[in-house]
Amino acid sequence: MSHDLSRLGWDDSLASAYRRFDRPDAAPARVLRADRGFCTVLGDAGVLRASLSGSVLLGAAGDPVNLPCAGDWVVTRRWPDRRVTLEVVLPRRTALIRRTSDKDSTGQLLAANMDTIAVVEPIHPEPDDARIERLLALAWESGAKPLLVLSKSDTAADPDAIARQVAELAPGVPVVAVSVRGTPGVERLRSYVEGGRTLALLGRSGAGKSTLVNALAGAAVMPVQAIRDADGKGRHTTAYRNLVPLAGGGAVLDTPGIRGVGLLDTAEGLDRAFADIAELAAHCRFGDCHHGAEPGCAVAAALANGSLAPRRLASWRKLRHEVEIETARRRARQAAAAGHRRRRG
């Protein structure tokens, strides 16, 4: 069964990147799902199972982020014995990467080549402000456009009022309250996949991501499980990244439910997520202001007059400290690797 890849976002820019790899036994495809050593891909000829070539595995030896992931555009090769291998990962336009929990603080690629990242946060029992801020920083850093989705809006008496309140945590980010039970929110999400675009969903387990995927697809393509009414927490977690092509064009990408999200070197994403504080800091008298007792501190003035909440500043300080630590670790790793190369040379 043939498939028109332009419905998934294939365009002239991607075709240009693919051109130097083109040969009679090669074809472009998009990764629907990545497993250990294999990927399920969708190409012109339909859905295929492709094993990873030696060159792809070698390229990821130093950094697992280089392994193919759901959303990647790739080059596949068909062999005489009908095997299919994934030979090249084409350059990514956007990449959603979180820090792993190991001591080396390496990155884990969650999704690639999405146009919009929807941070999905359930209204019930109540939105978690700190989690929203952290996920928005991660989304901004990816290079995609963030969107804040308040799911399960049918559980709130006035979801629009909650959306207006939460919008203060997301300067410059659209906020949409949705429910799959008859509100127009899901239809508003369809605009983010028109024209072959990709919408990625990011949030904790039980936030309703898989339910939203099914609503957008018009079919049960992702498994879901009922949540506990008492605390709103879900037992089901999607354990893999899955790109779901939609019948009307475009795609939605469901990421695993995550309990914690570590930030890597995401200073730019943090500034975008806390644009209100960044704007205040730009008006401080001193460029190296620590926003404490320094004279002429615009941030301290905003705290004093109530236009900046203490919790918001504390959250920014915590995340900035985390990013500074990870930046220092990255630089130390790079220096150690450069020293190792010099000794070997």
What does this structure look like?
There is one protein chain. The protein has ten helices and 13 strands. It is α/β, with parallel strands linked by helices and 345 residues long. The chain folds into three domains: 85 residues, Nucleic acid-binding proteins (OB fold (Dihydrolipoamide Acetyltransferase, E2P), Beta Barrel); 160 residues, 3-Layer(aba) Sandwich (Rossmann fold); 78 residues, Orthogonal Bundle (Ribonucleotide Reductase Protein R1, domain 1), CATH 1.10.40. It has a six-stranded mixed sheet, sandwiched between helices. Strands 1-2-3-5-4 form a five-stranded mixed barrel. A hairpin with a 5-residue loop joins strand 4 and strand 5. It starts with 11 loop residues before the first helix and ends with a helix. About 4% of the residues have low confidence.
Tally of discrete structural domains: 3
What's the tally of helices? 10
Named at the architecture level, the CATH assignment of the largest domain is 3-Layer(aba) Sandwich
CATH fold category name of the largest domain: Rossmann fold
CATH class of the largest domain, named Alpha Beta
Distance between the termini: 52 Å
Rg (CA only): 22 Å
List the strand order in the largest sheet: 10-9-8-11-13-12
What percentage of amino acids are in beta strands?
Answer: 15-25%
Order of helices and strands: HEEEHEEEEEHEHEHEHEEHHHH
User: Helix- and strand-based class?
Assistant: alpha/beta
Average residue-wise pLDDT: 87
- Give the fraction of residues assigned to helices: 25-40%
Question: How does the overall form come out from the CA principal axes?
Answer: globular
CATH evolutionary superfamily of the largest domain = P-loop containing nucleotide triphosphate hydrolases
Low-confidence stretches: 226-238
Write down how many β-strands occur, each being a DSSP E stretch of 2 or more residues: 13
